[in-house]
Design goal:
The chain is α/β, with parallel strands linked by helices and 394 residues long. Helix content is 35%, strand content 20%. The protein has two domains: 233 residues, Thiolase/Chalcone synthase (Peroxisomal Thiolase, Chain A, domain 1, 3-Layer(aba) Sandwich); 150 residues, Thiolase/Chalcone synthase (Peroxisomal Thiolase, Chain A, domain 1, 3-Layer(aba) Sandwich). A hairpin with a 3-residue loop joins strand 14 and strand 15. It is globular, with a radius of gyration of 20 Å.
C-alpha cells in the first residue's frame, strides 16, 4: 500500500510557510538570535523564535482574541491548516488527527503562576485548563473545523516523528484513510532553563557534528503532513508530493537524558526503517540528522551512521542550526524539509561546521547541493532513548 504525503505545512524561525522555509534553507543563513518577549528569563538565550505574536496567530486563524489557547497549539494549528490545504470533511474518508507536543500549555501555566503570585483571587482551575497536552489537540481541531478521531503523542523530541509513524501504521492497517500528523512546541522558561541546567545549552550558535560543539539552541515551531491512501486521494482529488515508505521506533533505555554512546537505539531505528521501506541502505540519498549539537547526541548518532552505512555514509546534515532544536516539533518540520529535499532535489547545508569530530572521519554537507534525491532518512531521538527514524521517498 502506498502512503502518500498530499499536504505539508510548517512554521518556524526560518519562515511562516513552507515556501518561506525553503527560501531560508536555500540562503544558508540562520535567523537564530537573542530570545525576546518571554517573561522572567534568567539569562539571555540564543534560539529560533517566531516573530508572530499570539494575537497575530489568533487573528489569522480566526480565533477569538480572549480565547485561552497555548502558543504550542496555535503554532500547530497554523502548520496543520497549511497541510490540510483545500481538503474537506468527507463521510467516506476515515480521518485521524495525531498531534504531538512536549511543552503543551506550559508557557501559559508559567504566566498563570506569576500572575497568581500577584493576585490571590486568580482562578487557577480555569486558567490551567489547557496545561495538559491533550487539551491542545482539542483546541486545534476545533479551530480547523476538521472532523477526525484525535490522538496526542508526547515522547519528548521524537514526538512528531512518532505521530507520523502512527498515522502511517493506521493507514497501512486499514483503520483510517487519511491522517493529519505532526507536532508543535513553543519556547518556555521550563525548557530553556531546563536544558541550561543540563549544561547542554550553547551560549553561541550551535555547531552540529563539529568537534567544538558545546550544546544546542532551542527553537519553537510546528510541522504537519497530510497522509492519504488511494481511496482518500481518489475521493478528495489529491496529488502526492512524496511517500512515507519506512518507519521504526526503538528505545535503548540507556539514560534518562542521554543517548547510548554505542548508538544502539539509533542503529535499531535506522536499520528497521530502511528495511520497512524495502530498500537497501546504499539507496538513501540524504539523511536529515537529529543533530542537536550536543556532545552526546552527535557522537551517538555518528556511531549509528557507521554501524548502518559503514564507510559509505550518505550526504547528511542537521537543519537545527537553522531552526534551533524545536523539541516535539522537530520530527514534523524536518519531515517537511525531507519532502522539500525530494521535490527540489536538494541537500540542505549543516551550518556552523568547521572541525571534524575526533571520533569520526566524515563530515556533514556544509553547502547547499543540487542532486537527485529519491530517498531521505529523517531521524528524531528523544529523552529516555526513544529513537524514531522515517524514510520518505519520491
Amino acid at each position: 500500500m502506498q502512503i502518500a504525503i498530499c499536504g505539508i505545512g510548517t512554521i518556524s524561525a526560518i519562515g511562516n510557510t513552507v515556501a518561506e522555509s525553503l527560501e531560508t534553507l536555500k540562503s544558508g543563513k540562520s535567523p537564530i538570535s537573542k530570545i525576546e518577549n518571554i517573561r522572567h528569563l534568567r539569562k539571555p538565550y540564543l534560539g529560533g523564535q517566531i516573530k508572530l505574536s499570539d494575537e497575530a496567530l489568533k487573528a489569522e486563524l480566526g480565533i477569538e482574541p480572549n480565547t485561552v489557547f497555548p502558543r504550542s497549539a496555535l503554532l500547530s494549528a497554523w502548520a496543520a491548516k497549511e497541510a490540510w490545504g483545500n481538503s474537506e470533511n468527507h463521510d467516506e474518508i476515515r480521518t485521524a488527527f495525531i498531534s504531538a507536543t512536549s511543552v503543551g500549555g506550559m508557557e501559559l501555566s508559567e504566566q498563570f503562576y506569576f500572575d497568581y503570585q500577584q493576585n490571590e483571587s486568580f482562578d487557577l482551575i480555569e486558567n490551567l485548563s489547557t496545561h495538559d497536552n491533550g487539551a491542545g489537540t482539542d483546541l486545534i481541531l476545533d479551530a480547523l473545523g476538521v472532523n477526525a478521531s484525535r490522538y496526542t503523542i508526547s515522547t519528548a523530541c521524537s514526538s512528531a516523528a512518532n505521530a507520523i509513524l502512527l498515522g502511517a501504521r493506521m493507514i497501512e492497517m486499514g483503520i483510517i484513510d487519511r491522517a493529519l500528523v505532526g507536532g508543535g512546541d513553543a519556547l518556555s522558561n521550563f525548557t530553556l532553563n531546563g536544558f541550561d541546567s543540563l549544561m547542554i545549552y550553547d551560549t553561541e550558535w550551535c555547531k552540529p557534528f563539529d568537534d567544538t560543539r558545546k550544546g544546542l539552541n532551542l527553537g519553537e515551531a510546528a510541522g504537519f503532513l497530510r497522509l492519504e491512501n488511494d481511496k482518500a486521494m481518489k475521493l478528495s482529488d489529491s496529488q502526492p508530493l512524496a511517500y512515507v515508505k519506512g518507519w521504526a521506533n526503538a528505545n535503548d533505555s540507556y539514560h534518562q537524558t542521554a543517548s547510548s554512546p554505542d548508538g544502539k537505539g539509533a542503529t535499531l531505528a535506522i536499520t528497521k526503517a530502511i528495511a520497512k521501506a524495502g530498500i537497501d541502505a546504499d539507496q538513501i540519498d540524504y539523511i536529515n540528522a537529529h543533530g542537536t549539537a550536543t556532545p552526546n547526541n552527535d557522537l551517538s548518532e555518528s556511531t549509528a551512521f557507521k554501524n548502518v552505512f559503514g564507510n559509505q555514509i550518505p550526504a547528511f546534515s542537521s537543519t537545527k542550526a537553522f531552526t534551533g532544536h524545536t523539541l516535539a516539533a522537530a520530527g514534523g518540520i524536518e519531515a517537511v524539509f525531507s519532502v522539500l529535499a525530494i521535490r527540489e532535489n536538494l541537500i540542505f547545508p549543516n551550518l556552523n561546521y568547521s572541525n571534524a569530530m575526533k571520533e569520526t572521519d566524515f563530515a556533514p554537507q556544509t553547502e547547499i547541493k543540487s542532486q537527485e534525491v529519491n530517498h531521505v532518512l529523517s531521524n528524531s531521538f528523544g529523552f529516555g532513548g526513544n529513537s524514531t527514524s522515517l524514510v520518505f521517498s519520491s
